[in-house]
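Thread: Newbie trying to understand structure tokens

Hi all, I'm a second-year student working on a class project, and my supervisor (Dr. K.) asked me to get a predicted structure for one chain before our next meeting. I've only ever worked with sequences, so writing a 3D structure as a token string is new to me. If someone could post the tokens and maybe explain what I'm looking at, I'd be very grateful. Here's the chain:
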Amino acid sequence: MVLVFRNGSGRLVVIIFSIVVVLFVIHQLIPMEDFSFSGELSESLEIIKRCAHNNREILDPSAGMVVAGVPDIIHQIWRTTDVRTYSTELEASHDLWKITFNPINYTVKIWTDEDVLQLLEAKYTWLVSTYKGYPQNIQRADLARLVVVHAEGGIYADLDVYPRDATQIQCLRHLGLQAIFAPTAGTLGLSNHFFMAERESSFLQWALYEAKRRGGAESPRVLLPYLQVFWTTGPMMVTAAFREYAWLYSTQRQKLGLLDERYGRAVIQHAAGRSWHGSDGKVLNYMADHAQKAVLMGLFILFTLFSLVYVVRKRCYKYRGLFAYRV
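---
Reply by user tm_fold:
Sure, no problem. This is what the structure looks like when written as tokens:
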């Protein structure tokens, strides 16, 4: 068999390959636009840089305060009730949340896969097929956290999120906001590793509708697995849902809050060591919290590919002529 590549046809192949690579990268980076609205955040929700209620009174169970809003429940999710299987590198934060908040009459719950499915089948039947249809466990976990907080209200924290300031977390519950989210890096969007909300929050309901929509026919257009997770159920989806929600109810006060990035680090610690898929979990967390860096990394890879193409073209030009490989 003889394979023949002339200089002209070789350059044509390189050009076609370059165009395909560029189109693919652009196509896959389109979902990143969900993060590109930092200027609009402060206009549509409250950026929380501090919480200065009477913290001593809030933390005193004997004060007899009855405050509507975010319930005193902390939700966490794992496959089973044995959180020791969570990670070989990190200690799950569940016990720390219990040690910190049980003394002030909080309920700290672990939802297992079975618990979540039972809740879906009982109250969210319209989401069951979407939940079961996800190809990755992390997508089910992302959807589950929205469901359980919508159903019962309270605080959600990943097992790699650790409380740093119980007083501030208590204070946030009493700000009168229907939902508060941790930020992505640079306060560019809403992250879902830590958030709190009222029971049956209208925004969480909207986010569930958006997750349902993205879990349908549109989802396959995102081919990169990590990006697909963020776009279908993760921070990109939550941020996009907020944009739609804010636009729809633009004439009303949203009562939604976003922790300032610096303040958020004083309230909680996010170790970003999730182990739903071992090392995949770390990559997912890092990309979710560093969206800008992820884009820059993609551009760097694109630059490297173009450099490689340039070198190949130069070599083809230098050794132009007929190249034949006989088998």
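A couple of things are worth pointing out once you decode it. The chain has one domain: 37-289. Residues 287 and 294 are 6 Å apart (CA to CA). Feel free to ask follow-ups in this thread.
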